[in-house]
Amino acid sequence: MKGIIPNKIKTQAILFLCGVFVISQTVSLFIYEHNRNHTILMTEASDLAARISGIVSLAQEFPSSERRNILASAETQFLSMYPIVTPFEESSCTNNEFSKEMISELERAFLNMSKHQIRVCVRELDGLASVVKKDTQGALDVMVIIKFPDQTSSMFHAVLPIKNSLFNQTVVFYLLALVCVGLMLSWIFIIRLVSPIERFAQAAESMGRDINSEPMNEEEGAVEVRVAARSFNHMQERLIRQMKSQTEMFAAVSHDLKTSLTRLNLRVEQIENKEQQQGLFRVVSDMSQMIHSILDYLRGEHSNEASRRVEFRALVESLCDDLKDEGFAVTIDSDVDEQIIECRPVALRRGIQNVIDNAIKYGECAQITLNANDSNIVLDVCDIGPGIPEQNQKDVFKPFYRQEKSRNKKTGGLGLGLSITQNIIHSHGGQIELSNLSDGGLRVRIILLKL
């Protein structure tokens, strides 16, 4: 069923509406044709009985010798009269609604002529072609035998064309035209219903990348859509206020901590015992490194940097050139053309640099490969280090987690580098993945959305 039913709401709704429309029209036509056929048959039976009773009433006023001329003068294209009854097999007669209606109508017509005897035989399609010398294919053959009071008989034969079906080329064209008009109207209607959902998805995606993205238009669409857009904008405003408050708090904490460290550092400089002084300097340095790392981590989650369009390949190449100039073993292989993305360039550069720094620190070098497809940009950073066991690869993104067994203990850091990078990449709507290479080493893959 998943392969048959389309995934998009627009297509599903249009197919559903068109299906309901076509089925309802077809069923209505079937019901109408059935009622129409019944009405036509009953009308033809009544008209034919009235015509025959009129002819009989006129013919019985004349002697039997003159009835031939009377009957001959009353013939029409579809009604023939014969003064002599031609034998026929009654087993071929059909006892249907038409024959019953004919008998009922004739009995009412001859109510005052009780001496007349009436026999009716109805044959479908080609019952009397050999007798009446007419092509009756596609017609209803009706024989009525009237026995007059003087014991003479006459046979009336009617060839009634069967009604044309409503399901012809004109009706098919009419149905197709209605379907086309229904498709166009449905398409317009469904677009008006589904477009707000698409706008909400785009707004949520934009806000996920940049909390300060442009708010939704509150004056467009139906009342329910405008109310939902207003609620969405209020939610965005509350998030912005909350993040601004947290950022201000982090700034205050950062200022107080740095001030305290500066004062502590000044106090340490006044210690005369050099051995104690050097030990305290190391403690202060460790505390400073820890505080800066924690603030970097928090800053990555609550960055106020504005998003803008950046050429991603140039950003990566610039970062690699800076690291090469510092003497680090960094190589880059890029076969992609210019790739524009919407990002916070300072934050994204810091996140990518954390990955490259880890590759250099723990894997001796950083081999960078840049690829792109129709929707994503893929950045691979590989090294030739020991890698990370697969069962621990998710843990390295946790704050303060260090993979001591595979990483150098002396340069293990605080375990916030990949956590910071993951927060930055996720805030840009991207993904970051780890995998061990078959020849040894670790590959960090960063996937970002293209514009």
Identify the notable features of this structure and list them briefly.
5-stranded mixed beta sheet, 4-stranded antiparallel beta sheet, 451 residues, Heat Shock Protein 90, 10 helices
Concise synopsis of the structure shown:
With 451 residues, this protein is of the alpha+beta class. The chain has helices at residues 9-59, 67-73, 97-109, 129-132, 169-209, 223-269, 274-301, 312-325, 345-363, 417-427, and strands at residues 79-82, 117-124, 139-147, 153-161, 308-311, 330-334, 340-343, 366-372, 376-382, 431-436, 442-449. It has 3 domains: 9-161, no CATH class; 202-304; 308-449, Histidine kinase-like ATPase, C-terminal domain (Heat Shock Protein 90, 2-Layer Sandwich).
Q: How would you sum up this structure, described in words?
A:
- This protein is α+β, with helices and mostly antiparallel strands.
- The chain folds into three domains: 9-161, no CATH class; 202-304; 308-449, 2-Layer Sandwich (Heat Shock Protein 90).
- It has ten helices and eleven strands.
- The chain has helices at 9-59, 67-73, 97-109, 129-132, 169-209, 223-269, 274-301, 312-325, 345-363, 417-427, and strands at residues 79-82, 117-124, 139-147, 153-161, 308-311, 330-334, 340-343, 366-372, 376-382, 431-436, 442-449.
- The strands form three sheets. It has a five-stranded mixed β-sheet with strand order 6-8-9-11-10. It has a four-stranded antiparallel β-sheet with strand order 1-4-3-2. A two-stranded antiparallel ribbon has the order 5-7.
- A hairpin with a 3-residue loop joins β8 and β9.
- α1 packs parallel to α3 (97-109).
- The two termini are 33 Å apart.
